[in-house]
Amino acid sequence: YFTRFEGHQDCGLASTNVYTPPPGTLSDGDRAGAFCKNRATLLKAVSGGGRHGFDEPFYPKGCHYRWYSTAQICHILSRFDGLAFVGDELMLSIYKGFTILLRENIALGALKQWDMSEKQLAACRCENQFITAECLGFAVTNSYEMREKDAGSAHKSPYICDRTPHMYIPITGPATENDKARYRSLFDPDPNAWKPVPLLHSLGLSTSLSWPTGTNSLDEWASLADSTLRATPMLALGPNAAGHLKPPGQILSEGNNALWHYTIEMGKEAEARGIEWVGLYNMTLQASSWDGSAYGLRVAVTQAMIVINWLARLESS
Fold first, then answer.
1. Among the residues of the chain, which ranges form H helices?
2. 31, 48, 71, 246: most buried, per Cβ within 10 A?
3. Residue 231, CB half-sphere, CA atoms under 13 Å: how many?
4. Are strands 234-240 and 166-170 parallel, antiparallel or unpaired?
5. For residue 45, what are the CA distances in angstroms to 60, 91, 103, 175?
6. CA separation for the pair 250, 143 (Å, rounded)
7. pLDDT at 84 over 60
């Protein structure tokens, strides 16, 4: 899968590192109904899945998700007028994985290559897109800059599907007026525009796992989405589990016990509001984390593909 991606050799990422297809599907098609048929079964399978060993590929429970080609991802995105990724560091990591897939660039696909020096480009390749402090400020945050800046760059990555606008909107609490304006910019002013604009939401560690802050944010963004008078399906995600390198001073407040309780309670709160929910705790419980909180390339592209599977199962009107 990744052999056509820039950086596939020096970054050491193979499809077998991130995805194991269900048995009997490679040559025999979906004869056993192995793939999740709808969003509800997909989200349940992902929330309940796990890994068969440390850093082994994530495997959902009950039914499987698909690993779509770039062409298939573009077709899925074409069914929407826009896409908003709203949240803290977790959502930024997912958005980075999303842009890596769209740009077919494992080495630098999450970054603004056009703003970087040759030295920075060399220092920020592969996993360093996620873990090196000097690289984090170069993260791509919307499709507009890829379309406008990347085309004239000497460090151009092919932006494969230039069809549907999408953006990452960083939040750690209540939305600012600028956050709201950026979100509304995704909606075509054409009164005949009709395609949905899905909204993905995640808020966890940046709030010290505050349930009131998380639920208030869900309410605020659901209300903002409703105010557009458009179809705005919403998915709440997360949080990740705590990695084994979590500093001792954070274990009580941000360790796996606290994260698990936050996952359960926020899932209940989302469902009570009619918002779809997927937990990422099990997916990351046996995955490598460079600091105990954030995860790297493998987890990012996997979580992005889960989002794409959810989008593929949405109604297009």
1. 15-18, 39-48, 70-77, 89-103, 118-123, 128-131, 133-136, 143-149, 177-184, 211-226, 251-254, 256-272, 281-284, 297-312
2. 246
3. 11
4. unpaired
5. 5, 20, 28, 31
6. 35
7. yes
Q: Are 172 and 207 in contact (CB under 8 A)?
A: yes
Residues whose CB is less than 8 angstroms from the CB of residue 82 and which lie 6 or more positions away in sequence, other chains included: 164, 165, 166, 186, 187, 188, 197
Each residue's pLDDT tens digit, 142-177: 998 888 776 555 555 666 677 799 999 999 999 999
- pTM over cut 0.85: yes
The Cα 57–Cα 59 span in angstroms is: 6
Q: What are phi and psi of 303, to 5 degrees?
A: -65, -35
Spatial separation of the C-alpha atoms in residues 309 and 114, rounded to whole Å:
30
Instruction: Give dist(CA 59, CA 48) in Å, integer.
Output: 9
Task: Spell out the residues 6+ positions from residue 210 whose beta carbon is closer than 8 angstroms to its own.
Answer: none
Q: Which residue has the higher pLDDT, 144 or 178?
A: 178
Rounded distance between C-alpha atoms, residue 18 and residue 56, angstroms: 7
Residue reference for tokens 């151009």? 156
pLDDT tens sequence across 51-76: 989 989 999 999 999 999 999 999 99
The CA-based angle 74-200-43, given to 5 degrees, is 85
The Cα–Cα gap between 210 and 192 comes to: 40
Helices marked H in 19-69: 39-48
Q: Which structure tokens are listed for 34?
A: 């192995």
CA count, 13 A, side-chain hemisphere, 237 = 27
